[in-house]
Specification:
Layout lengths: L25 E6 L5 E6 L7 H4 L2 H15 L19
Antiparallel strand pairs: 1-2
Length: 89
């Protein structure tokens, strides 16, 4: 676990996370048996991209491509712009 950070609630019981919430769109709060509150950060994705996370084979392929690109192992197949407006069955 990281360094503890002291946060104080305002008069209405609200706590401001400031930079701790950078890149986070929402949190899920968990109350533990010993009374601790654990915040689990979420980063939401647009609905049009959800299909990728629902398709394990496609997600694995994209992750592999990103990994290969980071190692300069990607192979260029040229532009696919001509297919941009194609209907997908």
């Amino acid at each position: 676990m990281g360094k503890p950070i002291q946060l104080r609630p305002d008069s209405k019981g609200r706590i401001t996370l400031g930079k701790l919430a950078d890149g986070v769109s929402s949190f899920r709060a968990h109350l533990t048996d010993n009374g601790n509150i654990v915040l689990e950060p979420y980063a939401e994705i647009p609905a049009r991209e959800k299909w990728l996370f629902d398709n394990p084979a496609a997600l694995e392929s994209v992750q592999k491509g990103i990994e290969e690109a980071g190692k300069d192992e990607a192979i260029s197949r040229g532009s696919f712009a001509e297919y941009a407006e194609a209907e997908i069955d």
